[in-house]
Amino acid sequence: MDRIASFRSFIARSPSDPFPRYGLAMELKSSGDIDAAIGEFATLMERFPDYVPTYLMAGNTLAEHGRHADARAAYERGIAAAQKKGDGHALGELETALAELVSGNH
């Protein structure tokens, strides 16, 4: 079974766990299926809004593919989620990514 199929199997068994879906999104990104990866990141942000790691990777993926407004929205939502959870490390990474995007240095 390939990694994508494995992640889909994990998701089917544990639909309330965001980690397998995050793994699937990252695997899709790595395999070059960017539209599917963006779709999985969007599902994560909708269904698991407190899962902070999603926002940086989603924003980065969107920015890398020219979707700057969507990337900015992902970073901003991530900043709010990180603040809510008290995750200073993620907050710093998201703020840096947003600043680089806004300044055009992404």
Structural summary, described in words:
By secondary structure, this protein is an all-alpha fold. It has a single domain, classed as Serine Threonine Protein Phosphatase 5, Tetratricopeptide repeat. It has helices at residues 3-13, 18-31, 34-47, 53-64, 68-85, 88-103. Helix 3 (34-47) packs antiparallel against helix 4 (53-64) and helix 4 packs parallel to helix 6 (88-103). The termini are far apart.
Q: Considering DSSP H and I runs of 4 or more, what fraction of the residues is helical?
A: over 70%
Can you summarize the main beta sheet?
Answer: none
H/E series, N to C? HHHHHH
Assembly classification:
single chain
- Tell me what the CATH architecture is: Alpha Horseshoe
**Portion in strands:** under 5%
- Quickly name the level 1 CATH class: Mainly Alpha
Can you identify the CATH superfamily?
Tetratricopeptide repeat domain
End-to-end gap = 36 Å
Structural class: mainly alpha
User: How many domains is the backbone divided into?
Assistant: 1
Shape: globular
Radius of gyration, in Å, reads 14 Å
> Stretches where pLDDT falls below 50 for ≥5 residues?
none
Number of H- or I-type helical stretches: 6
CATH fold-level name: Serine Threonine Protein Phosphatase 5, Tetratricopeptide repeat
Output mean pLDDT: 95
Number of strands: 0
